[in-house]
Each structure stands twice: as structure tokens, then as C-alpha cells.
Amino acid sequence: MSTASTDRMAMSPMVDLTGHGIEADHFRSLAAALPTGVTVVTTLTADGAPVGMTSGAVCGLSCEPPLVLTCITRGSRTLGEIKRRRGFCVNVLASGADAISQRFASAGGDRFTGVDWRPGPGGLPVLSTGTTAHAVCELYQVVPGGDHEIVIGLIVAGDSDPSASPLVYHRRTYAGLDTLV
Question: Cα separation of 7 and 96, whole Å?
């Protein structure tokens, strides 16, 4: 058995932590103090329609193999389609793309209406404007994480624009990091 296969299976048993730790509102306040990059995670439905959601819980996980992770609420339509499609794209939003973030964070409706995108590898939706980078991923592993699931993807394609500044979210407010460019 390969090391990658072994690693996928090496997980600690679940521990029920219901009722332990701080209250949810307190957690949200603490989490809001963490500045985070803003992304839109996209995939396709069975009939080829694009779906996606805003996520601030994305980070690089490994260089070898090249892995990225995102955390998605259990029951999310996007999560269900990622599991079914076995692939997704992480679109890193650029400074000034607040409206795109808000659109993909809203409930209901076709979030792709009025949003420019193109099919990337495997047809996965890559946003054409308002981004600094994108990473097209094959689903590698899904790990339970409380009321979310940790979705790990193997990056198979991607690109970045080093001249574009990222959009960040801090204390429930958007900001650009234009001073870094």
C-alpha cells in the first residue's frame, strides 16, 4: 500500500465534544478576529450547472503532494456536489471583489448570474474576473470537523496573477491588501 493511501486512512477516532468549549457566538467573535483570504469554491452539478460558495477557510496543506484544504458546512449543496463530482476549484478573490464574495455567500438563487467564468480542467468553473489566483483540484479526502467537513484537494492545475492584490476579511469587514503589491 502506498504512503498516500496509508495517510488517508490514518485518522484518530471521533470524540463527541458536544457541550464542551465556548459558546458559538463567542467562537464567531474570536474567528472574526482572524484576518483571512476570501475565496469562492466552485464545482459542477450532475447536469453540468456551476455551483459555488464563499469560503474564508482555505489554506495550503502540503507541497508534496500539492494539497489545499477548505472547510465547508455539512449539508451544503456545494459540498454534496464536490463529493459527487470528485473535484472543485478554489478561486482566490482580488481586492475590490466584495460583491462577488457577497453573491456567493448569499442563500438561494443562481449565484453565477452576471459572474464571468470559464470552464477549467474537467469543466470546473474558474472565475474569469475579480481573482488573484485559482487552483483546480481533484478530491483527495474529506474529514469530519464538527459541523463542517474538511475537504482536501490535490491541485492538478492553476494560475496566479502576481500583480493582483487579495481580498481579505477581518472583523466582518472586507479590505484589500493593496499595500503589499
Answer: 39
